[in-house]
Amino acid sequence: MNTPKILEVIDLKKHFPIRGGLFGTTQGYVYAVDGVSFHIHKGETLSLVGESGCGKSTVGKAVLRLFPLTGGQVILDGTRIDDMSAGTLRPLRRKIQVVFQDPFSSLNPRMKVRDILAEPIRNFGLARDAADLERRIGDLMDKVRLPRDAVNRWPHEFSGGQRQRIGIARALAAEPELIVCDEAVSALDVSVKAQIVNLLQDLQQELGLALLFISHDLAIVEHMTHRVAVMYLGKIVEIADKRSLFAAPRHPYTEALLSAVPVPDPTVKRERIILKGDVPSPIRPPPGCRFHTRCPYAMERCRREEPELRPDASGHLAACHLHDLPPAENPLLNHRPPTAFRAGAPA
Question: Which residues of the chain carry a pLDDT beneath 70?
Answer without folding.
Answer: 1, 262-270, 335-347
